Amino acid sequence: MAKSIKKEDSSIEQLILDTKDLEILQLLQKNARITVKEISDQMHLSTTPIHERIKRMEASGVIKQYATLLDHTKVKKGLMVICYVSLKEHNKKAGVKFIETIHSLHEVIECYNISGEFDFMLKVVAEDMNAYYDFHVNKLSQIENMGHVQSVFVIGIIKQTHQLVFPVSEK
Amino acid sequence: MAKSIKKEDSSIEQLILDTKDLEILQLLQKNARITVKEISDQMHLSTTPIHERIKRMEASGVIKQYATLLDHTKVKKGLMVICYVSLKEHNKKAGVKFIETIHSLHEVIECYNISGEFDFMLKVVAEDMNAYYDFHVNKLSQIENMGHVQSVFVIGIIKQTHQLVFPVSEK
DNA sequence: AAAAGAGCAGAATATTATTCTAGTATTGTA
DNA sequence: TACAATACTAGAATAATATTCTGCTCTTTT
Description:
The structure is a homodimer.
Chain A: H1 19-30, H2 36-43, H3 47-60, E1 63-70, E2 79-87, H4 92-104, E3 108-114, E4 120-126, H5 129-140, E5 146-160
Antiparallel strand pairs in A: 2-4, 2-5, 3-4
Helix pairs in contact in A: 2-3
The structure holds a DNA duplex (30 and 30 nucleotides).
């Protein structure tokens, strides 16, 4: 007998998030260590539905990770550089090899395949300019099949958040 | 009587992180909801020092935030665009006004002041191309003093992490 | 109208965070 | 070398929280 496509099939079906789920996510995004009780108090619900909804969103993958974010300047990662990279050849094998290497470089915290004249955009963090120079010369430029590389330096951080805001479509 | 510049002055002085602190940070970065007990077991220490070290790093600002990260595609924020912006005028007043506006736009999750021909780089998330079009035309382009805008679309995410890796200087 | 499913409240239990007490190194100093 | 101050640690006690369980209510479907 087929089950209805509803929330309990969270591991298979696309989870449909209602207003309460989104409200919970707003609070969790701000503080991953907020207690179920605090959420339930703010939302005027008991702890049971909050707990169930969170577990459901964890299981469905809506909640990807509870992460701890550090102050880069206080852990000697104060320099941020945006790197543009183009490859010489664009066959599958060359691409896979490049991706593997990127994953092994801890200085690269983000890498995107992008539109435009370059193939990839990298966000790189390092302790200082010397460390970045070492990364650029000895690691990035050494990757086989590497074409052009262009570095754009981050002078200041204006805004930096992971909070996704959802339109308030109240019932 | 002057106190020594040591760890207990965490709120004022620069906190010096030792190997154990960095080891704790590695675990916390991966999972903000890891228990003190789990950390203490992995590090072969009791819960007390782990707890104290964490509180110290929270107070000193090394730990900036416990954040919950969401799957963008599952919360209708699947499109990511990198926006380059240059302003017409570069006086203080114009810059401040621009920054204020950027902070009010929830689609902009990152904004950096950068070197090169553009003034700012923005990371923008939206539900789809229609939503991005609306953002571009009705919000971004409407900012006063706006000069050139160039959009680079993210085709694929190769790597995305917040895990900062620290060199293993054992001792 | 009956039945099933979903969401919820409240209580009970299991875990965990937090605090407290006191022992053990380590470092600097006379 | 001996002493004192400091930091670190283990283990226990307490407070707070997560998690589970039971049963009620509302809605939807047939």
